[in-house]
Every structure is written in structure tokens, then in C-alpha cells.
Amino acid sequence: MNRSKVVESLQMNYQAIKEGKGKWFDKRVAYTIARSFVDKERRFSDADYRHMEEILKGELGMFNVLVQPVRGILLGMLLANGKSRELDIHTLIKDYQRLREVGFQASSYSYFSAYLLQFTETAEKEFIVRRGQSIFEEIKSHHYFLTGAEDGTIAIALAQQEKLESLTTKQVGDLVEDYYQALNDQGFHKSNQLQFAAANAAMLTGEFSLELIEDIKQVIDELKQSGLRFRPEFYNSIVTLGFLTTLKKVDFQVLREYLELLEEKTNLRFYKDFRHSLALGLLIHEEMSLLSNDNLNISALTITMIMAQEASAAAAAIAVSVAASNSSS
Predict the structure, then answer these.
(1) pLDDT tens-digit profile of 230-243?
(2) Helix (H) or strand (E) holding 36
(3) Largest CA distance in the chain
(4) What is the pLDDT of residue 323?
(5) The model's pTM
(6) One Pfam family name from the record (predicted)?
């Protein structure tokens, strides 16, 4: 894989976003959208974005919960996956209503959950939504004050996973909690990011894996050698890399190459942690693409789920960061 071209593609899509309707987007939002287009046959189209946003605004009306940065990231993900028709917006809103009807919160983040439902057959959506709500309540029973609307995405992702079909929703919630405690024992701070990472571990493995925990230790050491601090923003990526390490040898020299390219070719000079998070995402994307068909334990749907989880987490982190910046200015 030509990594220089990957970063050039990322930067090209970023520029297209910033030169269009995304002119006033926070840089991290624009790069999160641009990353959705990496390795895709299509490029970001400002005309398509404006068209989809107008349809969305027309359907939702003036007063609605789908605000920036979630709206921009969500529309970018839809466009990156070839969803640019009016019907795609109608489906998103209808799936959002399904979620609301069973008790999911009225929140921008519930739209990420609705986005995931496009990968479920219509006949199965009612079951997945109800199972997802039950999983959400089980997770919340372990961490009442920690669990919020943004965690709906992980609940739906867990409900969609074939590896977890044989488990009751209580067993799924307990598995997430087992990973939460095990990762906390390895130095992961108790936080929403840890809850995301624990759910990701459950989704990837389908059962508790001591091998994964051991490999995660190695990943943390590798990141430190590459100059990355052990930060909550990286928790989800660390778990995914740990899982990949159980399947194949991960080349962390690739991470160092992406770190250099992103520092050299992007507009993220003053966003070091986000730049590092982006490099981890590109490494994961490349490593997943190298898995052989015989060893493909990660489905395309799972990859999409991971990206949706990360986008939801990124949107939450960016929103908090921007709010803090505005309050201090």
C-alpha cells in the first residue's frame, strides 16, 4: 500500500471539505469526514453534501437534535458509503424513530445508531433495536452515571454482532463489564472511552480472551516506543490493534511512517493527539486490508461498526473540546 498516496487522498478530501460547506468545520471534524473516504473509489463532493444536508434539514425541520459536529460527520459517512439519495435520508430518519420508540434518547448520537441499522435487513430491525436497548440498559446497570446517549451506538453494534447472538443481553452486558475491569487493571482509566473500548473487545471476540489482554499490553509498549502517550482517545484503537495482533503480526513501523506523513502533509500541526489518533486509524485500516480471506475474522460490517463507534466518540470529544475552548475565551 502506498502510504504517501493514502495521506495525499486524506488531505485532498480534507481540502474539498474545507473549500465547501465545511469551511467553518473544526479541523478534526473535517479530517474525521475525510478519513471516511480513504481507499474509497469516490471523493468528497460538496454538491452532494449540500444536497443531502438540504434534504435532511427539510425532513427534520428547524428544531431538531441533529447538530454539528455529529451532522457533518454522519453525512460524510453516508456519502463515503455511496448513500447520496433522498431515500437514504428517509431510511436514516425512520431508523432513528425506531430507536426512539423503544427508549433510546433523543440525541444527535442516536443518529449514529440509526446509521448502523442500514446494515440490518428491514425484517430484522425491530429485533435488533429491542435487543440493543436491552444491552444498553445492561451496560448502564454497571455504570449508571457514565452511560449516556453516545453509548447507544455500541449497544446497537453489539446487538448486530453474529458472535454474540447466542448470548443473552445480560451476558453481553457482563462480558463488556469483564473487559472494562480487565482493561482498567491494565491502566486504562475509568471513562466513557474505556466503556467504548470494552464494548469493542466484546464485539471483536464474542467471549472473554486473556490472549487479547496480553496482546494489548504489547500494543501499549509499541505505542510508547513510537512516541505516543497512553491516552483515552486511543483506547478503542489499542483494543482493535490488540485483536489484530492475535491474528497476525502487526507492523508498527507503518504507524511511525503514518505519523511522519501526517505531520508533514496535513494541517494538524497543533493537534498532536488527534494526529496520532488518525495515524492509528490508518494503521488499523491497512492491517485489516491485509488479512487473508481464510483469516478474515473481521467482517466488513464489523469494520463499519468500529468506524461508527470511533466517529461517535470523536464527535463527543470534539464537542466537549470546542465547548471548553469557547467558555475560556
Answers:
(1) 999 899 999 999 99
(2) helix 27-36
(3) 54
(4) 62
(5) 0.92
(6) DUF4003
118 vs 302: CA distance, rounded Å = 13
> Do residues 327 and 39 touch, judged by C-beta distance below 8 A?
no
Query: What is the rounded CA–CA span in Å between residue 113 and residue 151?
Result: 9
Q: Locate the DSSP E strands across the chain.
A: none
Please state the separation of Cα 194 from the chain's center in Å.
Answer: 14
CA distance 219 to 199: 18
Cell of residue 246, nine digits: 492475535
pLDDT by residue (tens digit) across 262-284?
999 999 989 999 999 999 999 99
Helix (H, G, I), strand (E, B) or coil at 226: coil
Q: Which of 242, 252, 174 is nearest to 207 (CA)?
A: 174
The total number of residues written for the chain in this structure: 329
Buried b / exposed e along 284-314 (16+ C-beta atoms within 10 A)? bbbbbeeeeeeeeebeeebebbbbbbbbbbb
For every residue of 157-193, DSSP letters joined together read HHHH-GGGTTS-HHHHHHHHHHHHHHHHHTTPPSSHH
C-alpha to C-alpha distance for 69 and 216, rounded to whole angstroms? 31
Over the stretch 3-16, which tens digit does the pLDDT of each residue have?
Answer: 999 999 999 999 99
